[in-house]
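README: folding subset

This subset contains proteins for which both the sequence and a predicted structure token string are available. Records are stored as plain text. Below is the entry for Signal recognition particle 54 kDa protein (258 residues), shown exactly as it appears on disk.
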Amino acid sequence: MVLAQLGGSISRALQQMSNATVIDEKVLNECLNEITRALLQSDVQFKLVRDMQTNIKKIKGKTSVVMFVGLQGSGKTTTCTKYAYYHQKKGWKPALVCADTFRAGAFDQLKQNATKAKIPFYGSYMESDPVKIAVEGVETFKKENCDLIIVDTSGRHKQEAALFEEMRQVSEATKPDLVIFVMDSSIGQAAFDQAQAFKQSVSVGAVIVTKMDGHAKGGGALSAVAATKSPVIFIGTGEHMDEFEVFDVKPFVSRLLG
Ligand code: GDP
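--- output ---
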């Protein structure tokens, strides 16, 4: 099998899996079998393929901690719930932790959204140390066997040293598997510097662009991708929980050019 065919088979298998309403053991096995077949047909060593299968299955049982970062008003808290809700529908057991002790009302907002989506949440009205809350939240939900723990962090109006230091500490204490940078689609030219500043403090691994239902073309997303060397994974298309889409290159590029 030539490389292009192999790539095609693998992306088809992954696409089928992500299209599934619920990703359970059966769907995962089908996807893995499909990939295994393609790899073996391409003469990849049997042992390597078998190890890959075993490792992927091991990862599935593991809890993922995902930390959200971004400026205040970017849509970070809203996006945390959308991300949790999206994965809950796919069969995951998500939970939300509010480590934003800076903005008054942040915990109430997260609590309200989480309650609406029937997603467990953790936060505090009294505790002012975001690191402490983040650690307690993650530990609590690990004990409850949640497999996706989402940590919302404080945003500020601009890039401030204190915000980055706090974020760095939360990241060091909770050791997230993924850090997602949330950016408003209307940010435009400022996106590169902003995203780069975040990347310098925490290891951003993905980008979510919000408010794509507005007039902005979202060109700043390209700068954020370049600055963080991370892909855009979802876009926000409204204020509601289900106004959230997996990022798709074609419509995004048409909008940029149109
Ligand atoms: P945070 O300060 O970054 O946590 O931002 P919030 O989550 O509080 O969001 C700020 C505002 O943007 C709120 O009024 C949200 O309802 C709104 N918002 C978030 N995402 C979207 C989106 O994709 N589309 C639209 N139209 N509004 C959004």
